[in-house]
Amino acid sequence: MLINGTQYRSVWFEHGRLKMIDQNKLPLEFGIKEYANYLEVAAAIREMTVRGAPAIGAAGAFGMALAALSAPDEKFRSYLRSARDELISTRPTAVDLSIGVNYVYESALKFIPDLPHARQVSVLAANEFANKSADDCLDLGVVGAAIIPDGARILTHCNAGALATVDHGTALSVIRQAHKQGKNIFVYVDETRPRFQGARLTAYELEQEGIPHAIITDSAAGFYFWKSEIDVVITGADRVCLNGDIANKIGTYEKAVLAHVHEVPFYIAAPDSTFDFNCAKGEDIPIEIRDEDEIKRINGSYLANPGSPALNPSFDITPAKYITGIITPKGIFDPAEAAQKVQL
Amino acid sequence: MLINGTQYRSVWFEHGRLKMIDQNKLPLEFGIKEYANYLEVAAAIREMTVRGAPAIGAAGAFGMALAALSAPDEKFRSYLRSARDELISTRPTAVDLSIGVNYVYESALKFIPDLPHARQVSVLAANEFANKSADDCLDLGVVGAAIIPDGARILTHCNAGALATVDHGTALSVIRQAHKQGKNIFVYVDETRPRFQGARLTAYELEQEGIPHAIITDSAAGFYFWKSEIDVVITGADRVCLNGDIANKIGTYEKAVLAHVHEVPFYIAAPDSTFDFNCAKGEDIPIEIRDEDEIKRINGSYLANPGSPALNPSFDITPAKYITGIITPKGIFDPAEAAQKVQL
């Protein structure tokens, strides 16, 4: 992705360390953080220094590589197992995380007892996972641009951008490609409470790429649907089930229902790593409930009545029946068939 | 309403001055502001020291009374006309404001050239308007409590509470009465971006009254609909049209669509002053567009990418077809008939 004229990835490995753009500081500050061990990576995922399903998948993969590099010889296997469990436990909803972590874990295990080789392979596997994720996102952008008509007014929710992936984005990869093809587009950016990933990150990426857009409150999308000023909705996903149900950032479901009622197409953009071939349906996806302080306070000050409780589910389920199609690197599929087509 | 154990109104007249609870300071600070002239009242309405359709209606009525008290004898009529235009121009969407202002304006004009009498009548008329508004709200609460089953999980949006009215509230008057009747209820409070009237004011009122509740982000309501954990939705309105379409705080439309899709009843609670007998349908209601800074900043700090524009419509239209009934002081009516029944 382009940031101040330079190409970056959100997550990468360099000189034996994991580097990540600090997404909690953006857009007011652009900073890069470095991690030398997996416990720091787990903390960074929990604190959302890195967020977005494919990006945390890659961060988890690199976290496993760091664990392999520093695991003591005498308990290599058990150390890796602890690291795997710790990394996967950081965020429950996005499946990319466990896929990325397990991919590196299993790659390393294959080379035991040749530990130097196992360590080397863990880094190679993590890089391979991250590169494939970035390539997938680029591919799905090219595939998905076909559904964006010239003149389209697009609604997106949360940040399904290059920051949320290793590079390019999912929903924003489609939008980037449509823009590159010279289509005249406009993006309504849901601010995405409680953490404002839309207002902070999606708006930032669109500004950096020069794509026309405006931030709206999450509640305002309905008004623009009512005015017939939204032509298509695209979001990312944190998990895609076998039946085509998806989990994504809280609020996605509301946009899908509105799109359905207004007969506006609603697309999910997802790389292979977001498909969970062990998950039959949306009801089976664990929904992360985060701290109420994310809703009640900002920068330490109360936005809300301090004496009232708040409920903070971070994701919701959108059933397949409200999804027009799932945009994948291999093509755009009916949600009920997407997992099968991706697995081929 | 009960605040720290004492009964208050949101807006009242005392010793020739208008007093109002400062709603921008709540819930962290409870303060009362005083106004001696209508220009200050107009500024207070614009800055949302007072907000909520019935409350700004009463504030406008008292603002007109202040104008009548201070109007120079030699240009009484033209001074009042300017005051009327200025007060009505402060907020375009709520009809209560022009109804309250015009009621006092016309009452005063009737007594010209007896100016002392006209001045006295203006204060009486404003008090009469405010008292009727408070009585209406109490009545509609008693009427509306019938639709709240014991054990109901209720969703409300924005603040349709005592603070938004002269007293009792509209949606919250219904909720207060159901609670007083001993019904075991739970209220999901939409935080209501961008100004957090739900998280700040509704949550505060419910805490003060000891009514069980939790704040959620505006986007999270869909999740609780999906889980079948919302039994009924009640909101206030800023204007009710002849055909039963209503305007209310941005985001109301989304909740109405969700309620419709989930077959959950969706009610509007509105006193007489919210009905606009000159407005045929929702499309005729002017929608106030407020400053983008309400979305992009809080307490001066950016929540959003500073270089991105934001669009800030403050209200949306909910068509009659999504409204189960309108709760009024006279009864609960089908939206298409409500204006006619209220006018009788």
Describe this structure in words.
The structure is a homodimer of 344-residue chains. In chain A, a hairpin with a 2-residue loop joins strand 13 (297-298) and strand 14. In chain A, helix 1 (38-46) packs parallel to helix 3 and helix 5 crosses helix 6 (171-180). The mean pLDDT of chain A is 97. The first copy, chain A, is built from eleven helices and 17 strands. In chain A, the strands form five sheets. In chain A, strands 8-7-6-9-12-16-17 form a seven-stranded mixed sheet, sandwiched between helices. In chain A, strands 3-4-5 form a three-stranded antiparallel sheet. Chain A is α/β, with parallel strands linked by helices and 344 residues long. Chain A has two domains: 2-138, Four Helix Bundle (Hemerythrin (Met), subunit A) (Up-down Bundle), CATH 1.20.120.420; 146-342, Translation initiation factor eif-2b, domain 2 (Rossmann fold, 3-Layer(aba) Sandwich). At the A-B interface, strand 7, helix 7, strand 8, helix 8 and helix 9 of A face strand 7, helix 7, strand 8, helix 8 and helix 9 of B.
